[in-house]
Write a sequence for this structure.
């Protein structure tokens, strides 16, 4: 049930704040996201710089980096995910409790980045776990990480908790853990998770791409 | 300060006259000539260099894959007749320095007989401990088996991996299914996955 | 931390051990104190370490293989990402190796610029080290805040000059990418003058600190001959009293013109390694002061150095520099084409880990964490 904004403003001027459960819960969740202490590579240094005094992620309630996945609800995948590391990333994601969010920070976590042609580089963590926000850059500036965090807060604020298009964590049938890939003789098995990674089919134009 | 490779070769020949050591010339401007040591004599020569000539720091061990021996001879040219190897071989290049005398690098090379079956080189771990991880890495990425290494297993790739990725004939896994903006080499790999619009 | 015996399937079996008394623990790859994705399979008898096998490769990004398919210049941005806390010295090491391979001269102004940037990089590396080692000891965040406050000032300078805070991609074969902007040398000079008081402030916190003294003294030492035999270089070697700094032992660039000393430790324990880095920072400030005063006018890059279609002659070269973590070397083999035939990075962090087990045997698990911190590793370099 939507709240009439004019009525809400009138009441607010008299000291009565009207909200809905959904808005209240989403506000609480988005204002205190606790990231998992999980830096992989160079982007981790910019992530640490974002928590330091100059860029100060504490303003967003997110400076409490938890070492244990059980206590965290945001996983900032900062850095290149290699095929050797990918099963551990998925395992950590599975160990986090719902509701949980993933930010893919840096070009390497989004699609493999500059190391895309490497035999040991996973071309994007979104092959195995669902990603909510991507932050391009190599490495993205700390301000970019803060903007990514704000984008995630907006996304959480718009989440629905009931109804048929509710968020995955509010749906008892929504998957909270995903299968962990295994080490094969030449590559990971499977190469990607088809229920998560559904790239748009591309059609190559004659004359080659650019 | 490049070591006086010829002088050291002379010292080795004087102390170990039956060791198979020969000089390879580096044609480039760096002029870092190397000593090719036969596999049977590698440990003796390394021990001699460490104890008698004070080369106590093994700085670097590099693995190289030479499927074409002519290229190997071009960048490290043997004196006299060419290398007897007809097929390709794998090679380990060692860079030695002396912390007390402040000279270096002294470059040693050890070669395998071929690239498939006879890929053994003696391990230098008993002489220089710094070879431990580096030899494991060369085993992992090139496939050279270091005889006498205390713990020869993969170090950078996972244990179930079977290939040796740094070899020149390694074929990387093909996971280029989604390439929105390919060009050059990636375009070639992506073409295998996309239908072409005629 | 998962203790699952099957993960040790490929590790050597401990003979004659009292198996039901030992606790096998896997520290990492996700762990607050392992400085990146580094894993250690530790076997403990109570709290004491009986065996420690490092496992890495979780950040193996195939830098060497990629370098064989791209040109020499295209590898320069990848060298930034090797030791990602000190990108500019990696750039210099690579440029040095290619200049040796191809016989390219570097003009004087470029050499001075390189020294200034390398010493600034040494400052940010050692400052960040202070923050991280104190985090390892339990003071999580506090010292790191001070360290990063100073690091940000230097990163601002880098951004002014190169356009990027971290991944500068600044050195070229024959010099640097662009000249110093107006006023940069002045700003750098002001920073060098203000850095001394910051070091005094940090030293006041640390030198007499009881916790530091109790936890770090006599922990993790090894005799000097064992360190040299293990290929250890950099501040770890000098903390044990071995006078081997490549800037003095095998000078590159124009380091012979500067007047600076090499601090040496006595015992080589964790305390010495921390204090060595403080003293090295002070020596870096001296070098910076001299370099800024002597900075000449001139070319910032060799005008005859070829950029497009750069094909070095057939041959090979191995060149090394004294990076903040140790001896960073590049071994390049050229076959006359635009791509290197073999491109090898000699990573100081990787080789400094060879003796990790020896340093930790018989000590407690808490000491393992600070010994690992004192080696100062960066996984980008360990795994390449």
């Amino acid at each position: 049930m939507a709240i009439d904004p004019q009525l809400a403003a009138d009441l607010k001027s008299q000291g009565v704040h009207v909200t809905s459960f959904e808005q209240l819960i989403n506000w609480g969740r988005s204002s205190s996201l606790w990231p998992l202490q999980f830096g992989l590579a160079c982007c981790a240094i910019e992530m640490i710089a974002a928590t330091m005094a100059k860029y100060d992620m504490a303003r967003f309630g997110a400076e409490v980096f938890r070492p244990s996945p059980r206590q965290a609800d945001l996983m900032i995948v900062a850095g290149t995910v290699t095929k050797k590391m990918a099963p551990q990333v998925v395992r950590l994601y599975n160990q986090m409790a719902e509701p949980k969010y993933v930010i893919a920070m840096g070009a390497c976590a989004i699609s493999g980045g500059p190391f895309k042609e490497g035999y040991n580089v996973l071309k994007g963590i979104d092959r195995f776990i669902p990603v909510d926000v991507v932050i391009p850059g190599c490495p993205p500036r700390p301000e970019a990480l803060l903007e990514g965090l704000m984008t995630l807060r907006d996304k959480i604020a718009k989440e629905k908790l009931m109804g048929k298009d509710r968020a995955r964590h509010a749906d008892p049938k929504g998957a909270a853990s995903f299968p962990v890939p295994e080490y094969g003789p030449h590559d990971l098995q499977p190469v990607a998770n088809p229920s998560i990674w559904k790239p748009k089919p591309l059609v190559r134009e004659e004359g080659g791409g650019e | 300060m490049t070591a006086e490779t010829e002088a050291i070769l002379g010292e080795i020949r004087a102390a170990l006259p039956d060791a198979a050591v020969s000089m390879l010339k580096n044609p480039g401007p760096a002029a870092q000539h190397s000593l090719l040591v036969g596999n049977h004599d590698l440990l003796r020569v390394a021990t001699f260099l460490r104890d008698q000539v004070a080369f106590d720091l093994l700085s670097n061990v590099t693995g190289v894959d030479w499927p074409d021996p002519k290229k190997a001879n071009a960048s490290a040219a043997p004196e006299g007749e060419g290398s007897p190897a007809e097929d390709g071989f794998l090679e380990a290049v060692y860079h030695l320095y002396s912390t007390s005398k402040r000279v270096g690098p002294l470059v040693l090379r050890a070669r395998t007989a071929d690239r498939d079956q006879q890929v053994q080189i003696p391990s230098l771990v008993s002489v220089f401990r710094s070879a431990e991880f580096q030899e494991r890495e060369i085993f992992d990425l090139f496939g050279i088996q270091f005889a006498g290494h205390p713990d020869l297993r993969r170090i950078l790739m996972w244990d179930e991996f079977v290939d040796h990725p740094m070899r020149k004939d390694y074929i990387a896994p093909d996971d280029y299914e989604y390439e929105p903006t390919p060009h050059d080499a990636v375009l070639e790999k992506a073409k295998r996955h996309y239908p072409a619009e005629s | 931390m998962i203790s699952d015996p099957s993960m040790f399937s490929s590790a050597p079996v401990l003979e004659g051990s009292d198996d039901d008394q030992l606790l096998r623990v896997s520290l990492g790859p996700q762990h607050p104190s392992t400085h990146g994705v580094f894993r250690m399979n530790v076997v403990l008898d109570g709290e004491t370490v009986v065996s420690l096998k490092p496992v890495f490769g979780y950040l193996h990004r195939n830098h060497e293989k990629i370098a064989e398919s791209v040109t020499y210049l295209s590898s320069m941005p990848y060298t930034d990402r090797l030791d990602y806390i000190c990108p500019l010295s990696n750039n210099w090491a690579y440029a040095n190796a290619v200049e040796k391979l191809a016989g390219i001269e570097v003009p004087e102004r470029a050499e001075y610029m390189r020294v200034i940037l390398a010493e600034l990089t040494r400052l940010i590396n050692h400052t960040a080290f202070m923050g991280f080692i104190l985090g390892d000891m339990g003071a999580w965040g506090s010292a790191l805040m001070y360290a990063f406050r100073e690091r940000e000032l230097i990163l601002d300078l880098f951004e002014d000059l190169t356009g990027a805070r971290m991944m500068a991609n600044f050195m070229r074969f024959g010099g640097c990418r662009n000249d110093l902007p107006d006023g940069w040398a002045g700003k750098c000079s002001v920073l060098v003058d203000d850095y001394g008081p910051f070091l005094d402030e940090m030293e006041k916190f640390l030198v007499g600190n009881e916790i530091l003294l109790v936890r770090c003294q006599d922990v993790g030492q090894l005799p000097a001959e064992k360190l040299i035999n293990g290929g250890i270089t950099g501040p770890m070697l000098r903390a044990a009293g071995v006078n081997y700094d490549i800037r003095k032992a095998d000078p590159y660039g124009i380091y012979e013109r500067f007047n600076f000393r090499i601090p040496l430790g006595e015992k080589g324990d964790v305390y010495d390694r921390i204090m060595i880095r403080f003293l090295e920072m002070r020596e870096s400030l001296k070098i910076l002061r001299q370099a800024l005063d002597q900075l000449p006018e001139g070319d910032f890059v060799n005008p005859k150095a070829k950029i497009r279609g750069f094909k070095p002659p057939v041959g090979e070269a191995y060149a090394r520099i004294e990076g903040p973590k140790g001896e960073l070397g590049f071994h390049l083999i050229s076959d006359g084409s635009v791509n290197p035939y073999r491109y090898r990075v000699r990573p100081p962090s990787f080789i400094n880990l060879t003796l990790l087990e020896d340093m930790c045997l018989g000590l407690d698990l808490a000491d393992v964490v600070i010994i690992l911190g004192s080696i100062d590793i960066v996984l980008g370099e360990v795994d390449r």
Remarks:
- The mean pLDDT of chain C is 88.
- Residues 108-136 of chain C form the longest helix (29 residues).
- Chain C touches chain B through 52 residues (CB under 8 Å).
- The radius of gyration of chain C is 21 Å.
